[in-house]
Amino acid sequence: MNQQNWGSFQTLLGHLEEDVLTLIINRPDKMNALNQTVLSELEQAITQIEQDQRVKGIILTGAGEKAFVAGADISEFKSADVTRAMEMAAKGQAIFDRLEKNNKPIIAAVNGFALGGGCELAMACHIRIATAQARFGQPEVNLGLIPGYGGTQRLTQLVGRGKALEIMMTGNMIDAGQALQIGLVNYVVEAAKLMEEAKKLMRAILTKGPQAVAKVIQAVEACFDKTKNGYQEEVELFGQCFGTAEMEEGVSAFLEKRKPKFS
Ligand code: COA
Fold first, then answer.
1. What is the CA(132)–ligand 1 centre distance, in A?
2. Are 18 and 1 in contact (CB under 8 A)?
3. Residue 201's closest CA among 144, 145, 127, 92?
4. Cα 33–70–203 angle (5° rounding)?
5. 179 CA to middle of ligand 1, Å?
6. What pTM was computed for the model?
7. Does the beta carbon of 139 lie inside 6 Å of ligand 1?
8. Average of pLDDT values for 57-83?
9. Which three-class secondary structure state does DSSP give residue 22?
């Protein structure tokens, strides 16, 4: 399939294949650790994704065969004080928040270690597919730290309080099978099939109405936003679907016994 380079970054690679963008964190010699450059470039990439009409869905993965992302770059921690550390956490959280709230579906294709900030990055994506070799964990306690890019919140939301506390208090890694069992990932697949499966799932989502998919993301988001009443948000978003060309097409197609064509 025709693939074109997308964006121009030092630490990210982008490939656009039809309307699906594959975004690769590209520091394989450092296990794709998230240094400040990666974070800033991720932020730029999100802005570009939001503006680029060609991009309808995003698959996020790591370069090389060993790691998705092995965490925040620990070498940047040594020089930080309390104020700087709070700035770093706030910046990471804001970027991951933009991923999670993005209108366009984002799938994490977890190809190896997803530790610390890497696990947090995967959790900020809408769906996670992992290879059987992937390993997950929040090992910050080994460094005298706690997760700072939303991990304490998202891991608890995804797997429940008991498992989240165990994972974060022990710092132990879990394998892909355990991650599947506790709901941290949606699927585990063979390494050779990871991108194919992620694209297949993305393609299935992209055959649906894009505005409806965006509204699903927004309504689910409201469940975790303490300032919002999720049920009321659902009422409003459901209402907004009526009168859209998408809903007109979806309902007409059903009544006419044909497949809908959303644009
Ligand atoms: N930050 C900075 N550098 C990192 C890193 C991180 N989070 N994770 C890995 N690296 C670097 C290593 O320092 C090493 O660099 P070097 O070759 O210049 O010495 C390189 O990536 C390869 O890692 P290495 O530890 O040699 O690979 P391994 O296969 O033996 O172990 C891991 C892989 C992922 C288990 C191990 O690297 C690790 O525990 N990383 C840290 C995980 C972590 O604590 N993350 C949370 C951070 S808050």
1. 20
2. yes
3. 127
4. 95
5. 21
6. 0.98
7. yes
8. 97
9. strand
Q: Nearest-CA neighbor of 138 among 167, 163, 179, 177? A: 167
Does residue 112 have its Cβ closer than 6 Å to ligand 1?
no
Q: What is the mean pLDDT of residues 123-151?
A: 98
Average pLDDT over residues 141-165: 98
15 pLDDT above the threshold of 70: yes
Mean predicted confidence (pLDDT) in 219-236: 97
User: Residue 71: CB within 6 Å of ligand 1?
Assistant: yes
Backbone angles phi, psi at 253, to 5 degrees: -60, -45
CA of 99 to the centre of ligand 1 (A): 25
Beta strands in 106-260 (DSSP E): 106-110, 113-115, 127-131, 135-137, 174-175, 187-189
Could you report the per-residue pLDDT of 102-119, keeping only the tens digit for each? Answer: 999 999 999 999 999 999
DSSP code for 125: S
| Closest atom of ligand 1 to CA, residue 74 | 1
Decide yes or no: CATH 3.90.226.10 for domain 3-206: yes
Nearest residue to 110 via CA among 81, 135, 86 = 135
Asked whether the beta carbons of 19 and 54 are under 8 A apart, the reply is: yes
The tokens of 219 are what? 């309504």
Q: pLDDT tens digit string along 193-216?
A: 999 999 999 999 999 999 999 999
